[in-house]
Amino acid sequence: MRPSTMSAYNRLPHGPDCDCSVCWSGREVANPAPSPSTRCAQCRPASARPIRTLQMGRVGGTWKPLLSEWTVEPAYICEKHTPPDRPAKWWSVAYQDSTSAPSELFPF
Predict the structure, then answer these.
(1) Which residues are CB-contacts of 61 (< 8 A; sequence separation ≥ 6)?
(2) Which residue pairs, CB below 8 angstroms and at least 24 apart, start in 8-17?
(3) Could you tell me which residues are beta bridge partners of residue 76?
(4) What letter would DSSP give residue 101?
């Protein structure tokens, strides 16, 4: 096709039920599915906040807390988002020591 014909072809409207890769990817981007690693409403990050000021001091002409007592709220991760205790089974093939190979392959 000539360049002018190709550009005219590319500008043609696609039908509502078009299944080409451009239309399909446009539909997929429009309604993304949540990732398994996306935290839910039950999960919360760790937080720390001061509960009592113990010592104040002047810094740059203004009074600021220099020493405070803090409360720490640990993170909570729900059962669904808790990582497994061990790596996946396939990960063990990434490391093989020389004792796992047959001895006839390495005669020395």
Answers:
(1) none
(2) none
(3) 44
(4) S
Structure tokens at 95: 């490391």
Instruction: Determine the distance from the C-alpha atom of residue 40 to the mean position of all C-alpha atoms in its chain, rounded to a whole number.
Output: 13
Strand partners, 68: 53
* 12's tokens: 């043609």
Tokens of 24: 């399909």
pLDDT by 10s per residue, the chain, length 108 = 455 666 666 677 888 888 888 888 788 777 766 666 667 888 888 999 999 999 999 999 999 999 999 999 998 888 888 877 776 666 555 555 556 555 555 555
Tokens of 43: 């999960």
Report residue 53 as tokens: 């000021």
Residues 40, 14 contacting (CB under 8 angstroms): no
SS3 letters for 29-89? HHCCCCCCCCCCCCCECCEEEEEEEEEEEEECCEEEEEEEEEEEECCECCHHHCCCCCCCH
